[in-house]
Design goal:
It contains 15 helices and no strands. Helices cover 55% and strands 0% of the residues. By secondary structure, it is an all-alpha fold. The chain has helices at 28-49, 52-70, 84-92, 94-111, 115-120, 122-126, 133-154, 156-166, 188-196, 201-218, 236-243, 260-264, 289-294, 303-308, 310-332. α1 runs parallel beside α3 (84-92), α4 crosses α9 and α7 (133-154) packs across α15. It has one domain (30-298).
Length: 339
């Protein structure tokens, strides 16, 4: 289930040694139980501070599940499908994960210098009539998300984090909550660009909320196609193809509001005579909340080592940044329009 080009493969995945029954190497089932306990503790700690996740999960259950039962896209998909508990755990800890996202996103937004071009076009934005401003903000917001989302699939470093979201093999009312908190931070440069350009922060905040809410609905296991809307607004059919792991659907349907950007940049994919049937990713993503949060950072060196060797660390960061920028540029120049 990935709409990505050649996602990176961790070489360790194919060389795992057989599980040992010793205390030093407990079997996989034992680790699974331990991570389940940790996930339960994390969810309980979040709910101690806020009951909002329970309200949201309950609301989605009441609002979406009846339609999934009455109009299922995949009739053989059970309500208690595999990894349902892990996705509910993602939903329950989402407020805590949003805090992590914000802590990392703010310095990243400042360091990206994306606010400089925003300030440069601020006089032009000021000339836009107030009645038109929300529509321009919507189009630019979707444009920024389109490219951020596209690079999240086509740049290996970004994909490591976004793959967690795409690892679900069953799309339904709660699968949209499966996200890595560091996946969302890559939207920060685009977001600060819009703010620096003079767009109303309240409008931007509303767009973020609407995007999150509609995103959860787009994952629902419902069979509605809404063909007349396919080239106008995003539909569940559009987003299900984005999650499809069928080869010809890879690298497609990145927009979150308007299919316009996919149509313009050649990544629109909506075949008429078939529907997506296979989801997931080819790589091995672990099961459960905590293992999925740890998966993208496996093999990362101890941050204290970075502090002990600041010059070496800065050189590595510069090389990594240069490589990421080259990969973003390569993605932007990738031939498209084959659809």
């Amino acid at each position: 289930m990935t709409a990505t080009i050649a996602p990176p493969t961790d070489p360790r995945l194919g060389t795992a040694e057989p599980a040992s029954t010793s205390l030093a190497n407990p079997p996989a089932a034992s680790w699974s139980k331990r991570w389940s306990v940790v996930s339960l503790i994390a969810a309980a700690a979040t709910l101690y501070f806020t009951r909002e996740p329970l309200f949201v999960v309950g609301l989605l259950f009441v609002a979406v599940v009846p339609f999934e039962r009455l109009f299922p896209r995949h009739r053989d998909q059970r309500f208690r499908r595999p990894q349902l508990a892990g996705d509910i755990a993602h939903a329950l800890v989402s407020p805590a994960m949003q805090v992590v996202t914000a802590i990392v996103a703010v310095p990243l937004a400042v360091a990206s210098l994306a606010w400089l071009p925003g300030l440069a076009i601020r006089p032009l934005v000021a000339m836009i009539p107030p009645a038109v401003m929300p529509f321009v903000a919507l189009a630019l917001f979707d444009f920024v998300i389109y490219w951020t989302h596209r690079w999240g699939h086509e740049v290996p470093f970004f994909w490591k984090f976004h793959a967690v979201h795409h690892s679900t093999e069953h799309l339904d009312w709660v699968s949209g909550f499966r996200n890595h908190p560091l996946d969302g931070v890559f939207l920060a440069p685009g977001f600060v660009f819009l703010l620096a350009a003079g767009f109303d922060p309240e409008v931007a905040g509303v767009l973020v909320i609407v995007q999150i809410v509609t995103g959860l609905f787009l994952h629902a296991n419902v069979r509605w196609r809404w063909r007349p809307l396919h080239r106008v607004v995003i539909t569940p059919e559009f987003h299900h193809w984005h999650h499809s792991n069928e080869r010809d659907a890879h690298c497609s349907n990145y927009s979150v509001f308007l299919p316009l950007w996919d149509i313009i940049f050649g990544t629109y994919f909506m075949p008429k005579h078939r529907r997506p049937a296979l989801y997931g990713v080819d790589e091995d993503i672990p099961v459960g909340l905590v293992p999925q949060l740890l998966h993208p950072v496996r093999g990362v060196a101890n941050p204290l080592r970075w502090l002990r060797h600041p010059i070496r660390t800065s050189c590595r960061c510069r090389r990594s940044t240069d490589r990421i920028i080259r990969e973003m540029w390569r993605s932007a120049r990738r031939p498209t329009g084959r659809r």
